[in-house]
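Mods, move this if it's the wrong board.
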Amino acid sequence: MRAHVIIPTYNGGTVWKACAHALQAACARTPQVAGILVVDSSSTDDTAAVAQAGGFALQRIDPRDFNHAGTRNTACAGLGGEPDVVVFLTQDAILASDASLRELLCAFSDPAVAVAYGRQLPHADANPIAAHARSFNYRERGYIVGKDDGRSMGLKAVFASNSFAAYRMSVFKDLGGFPEKSILSEDMYFAAKAVMAGHKVAYVADATVLHSHNYTPLEEFRRYFDIGVFHHDEAWIGREFGGAGGEGKRFLMSEFRYLVSRAPAWLPRACVHNFLKILGYKLGKSYTRLPLRLRRGFSMHRKYWG
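Not the wrong board. Structure tokens:
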């Protein structure tokens, strides 16, 4: 098996240095990795220098041209040597073990697996809300799911995260890659396409990265507005695999129990977060009724709106 790693970057700062260092260490123990490509959106700090110091290939693009889906498609198309698997990592996802890359790639020993993603653990500075989100969404036990699991698992059957995910390139090309323009969740889009085509998605719990965000309530609103936009535009995913309602209710109950036992002082803050997430999601799903200035104002990814 031959694999390439692709990392989009922009002003990665200290966490990018930690990511690059961990990636170098992991690659030294993962002979399947033939190369690492950093696609940098013209950073104004030392992000590009860190990539070059690590021996990574570097491609610079105009930040105005960056798009979560399209930029990754272009990077894949430009790879030489026809890799069997491409691994995507984000600049703030630090491999938690030298074995993480190898464990992720092992999922492709099953020829039915088209997508594999790893387990995300909270950063050391994660607040209780962020820490719970990681423990809820990324469990200790891995699994492999296919089309037959869709109705029982709902949207979880086609969940994936490009913070640390890998794709079988033959299937990626056959299915047309990511949508050329997507506000976010291009990973879920492709996972759903793959499952519908008869392939499988693997969650590899032993492939771990440190990755979390201490979002403010307003950032949560904007993020969930964008998630709502995605689910409006790709409504077929909900029709095929069910909506997000059931998983959302389970999340709320899990978070309540987690905070009561570990950080009860954070319960009021969590209520604000959850109210704004629900509001943002509902507005995003109805974004076609909103004027463009409000779409831009509500969105985390304002450049998407032109």
